[in-house]
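input
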Amino acid sequence: MNFNSLSQFIPAIVFIVIFLFLLSLEHFFPLRNKTYSLVVRLLINASLSVISFMVVFFLVSPAAKNAISWSSENSFGILNLIKLPAVIEGIIAFLLMDLAFYYWHLANHKVPVFWRFHNVHHIDPDLDVSTAFRFHFGEIALSAIFRIIQISIIGITPAAFFIYEICFTANTIFQHSNVKLPIRFERILNKIIVTPRMHAIHHSQFRTETDSNFSTVFSLWDHLHKSIRLNIPHKDIVIGVPGYTKSGDNNLDNVLLLPFKKQRDYWKKPDGSELFSREKYISENPGKLED
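output
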């Protein structure tokens, strides 16, 4: 079996194993109580995932492979400027890929047209492993352009790209999971990677919390960019986007058409009221993960 075959086969196995393992843990050790029918949510998120995977297969993956081939053939990109030992080059490639995804995630929150699509991910009323694949096909299609720019500028090799994609997928599933880890263990783990409690704050209905914790694999990018927010007691977190909490907002037809509709005020409830500020209820240290 050649490398190209492995690069398609192994990620699928990793995805299935991690997904099923965390789905089981969520059942026995839930971090949050569910507010919505699990079966309905799984059907909606699975439907969105199938469409998104098709876009990945026919658009994003070919774009990434072509960008890798082009940068290699033309010696283009940061990593092609100087010859480095393979291990050092791989580490730098991994870090640059992860940093680039920090900026891409940030752009999806700050650029209005991108947020229209990314909002579909955030209006999920609960947060679990299925949310990790709940992305609108429009956002996935737009990411193809980002992928071409990202890969071309970095000049990553196929092997380094393969390794990063495995880690990227694995930690995306993990951080969206509804698994309750021992707080002491998660505080240690969170110093290195994004964990469930950290990412749950990013899915909070409070805008100041949603606009934080943009990292994908390594949590250090939020520390460096001062966008870290860990000091929110988990019992106080309500998942979703206030403006999209009506009963029919998470129907499949609505989430598919949502980016193309007139947008509501995202941060006001359907009745027009705003969430009260809870700044006074949290500690002054944004870098300490609360239970």
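quick obs: The chain has a mean pLDDT of 92.
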